[in-house]
Amino acid sequence: AKVFIYEKPFDGFPKEDDLKLVEEDLKPLKNGEFLTEAVFLSVDPYMRGYAPFLKTGTVFLGGQIALIVESKNPNFPAGKYCFGQYGWRSHTISNGIPDPNNILHEYVLPDFKGLSPSLGLGILGMPGNTAYFGLLEICHPKPGETVVISGAGGAVGNHVGQIAKLKGCKVIGIAGSDEKGSWLTNEMNFDHFINYKTQNVRKTLKEIAPKGVDCYFDNVGGEISSTIVNQMSLFGRISVCGAISAYNDKHPKASALQAAMAIKQLKMEGFIVTRWADKWFEGIDQNLQWIQEGKIKYRETVTEGFENMFRAFTDMLKGVNYGKAIVRAKSI
Ligand code: NDP
Question: Which GO terms describe its molecular function (predicted)?
Fold first, then answer.
């Protein structure tokens, strides 16, 4: 097996030699075990956010869609695809014993009705459920309301915007390039787009949403979020999903949210998507149904080759991806 080891703690933006690619021998399978081969691997912002808690010398963390190539476990039969939080490794031996503290650690993929198993890392997996539950269960968007999404061009963000449109809302996306903006407004049904790198977010938002923002789905934190929260309408709802603008900061900056929160009587709630672990497959079913009905679209940005995991990861942090960033380790 090829395995990426977390060699040196990230100091600011990750550097290539912070990880080390090593070879590991695979032992013969014991009863109850099965061997998987990674087919698609995920690169996600949480890998950067969580890194300070990860021990050096251990395999770098992450989820993957793997093919079960050999099995002595009837629950994980050879030939099936599974999702596994196995980390950045090409081959894995697992005993398939459920982890009571993390029931989403591994599972055989449900039937995706002919769609690519790679979607189990995106719209039909963790980011898809983050968009679905994080928007609907925390913001409760109503028809006619204005919904703003930061990090709108990414895996979670573009999906949140499309769901908000299905709920009859006016949808404004914020992301880092005009090309992403054209894609969001032309293809993904967004009403408006703001480029946070070239436009004045405060001024542009005032023009597009003069009555204020009812729901804010926050993927980035920092200055962008302070600006938006200060333009919320009375009793607005904020779903705090992530803070990618701060993940590479050595010293997180203070933000200015409290005055707006109090004066406008806002509700702000953070979440980790595994909160809805017991409804996980309901979320996947709903997203799959929307895809089949042509109501929701998706896009993947694919990097070829397991050895290019690090580049895929840092490209995602730099904003190269449209929709979900993944790596293809094996052709199927
Ligand atoms: P994305 O696919 O959105 O990829 C990350 C994107 O972030 C990049 O493409 C880039 O796009 C943008 N970005 C990078 N740096 C900055 C910056 N300094 N300021 C603003 N935008 C930046 O990732 P995901 O959709 O997977 O995740 C989005 C957010 O959701 C993250 O914060 C993540 O941690 C969080 N998350 C939280 C979960 C939870 O359970 N709470 C679960 C899953 C994700 P651009 O071109 O616009 O700069």
Answer: 15-oxoprostaglandin 13-reductase [NAD(P)+] activity; 2-alkenal reductase [NAD(P)H] activity
